[in-house]
Write a structure and sequence with these properties.
elongated, Four Helix Bundle (Hemerythrin (Met), subunit A)
Length: 160
Amino acid sequence: MNRSRSRVGAAAAAIGFVLVAGCGGGQPAADDSPEGRAFQYRHAVMTVVGQKMLTLGGIARGEITADDAAFTKAASDLAVMAGMTTEAFMAQGIPSGSRALPAIWESWSDFERRAQDFQQAAQAVAEAAQRGGLEAARDLVRPLQQTCGGCHSTYRKPEE
């Protein structure tokens, strides 16, 4: 039951972020083209993923006070968001502001494989955390982070 609520909560947060971004949220008008909407969705998903990864990594490294409940929630939320990764890149297009590289769509099967690896690693962390908290999942956080880094180094422009 908690797992379902956590998944629904993570999905609702991502959707809410997309809606706020799509409505402007105090920002200049968003690109309403299919590519622009795809970018807004991708950006929302990846923003939530990034925040959950920061929480997991910070707790695992001891930079954030260890809290099994917070760690487990972040891990469960991340597992849900990881399942949205491939969907977030289905629509092609690289509008202004995107750091996605064309290689994503040129090497789609490799990108999908990497996204699947990320999903599996996120699910492994979430399951271990639910079974035994931080101590059960700590050693799985670094491999999870490596799935992100491997994809980013191949399919994302460096920050300017």
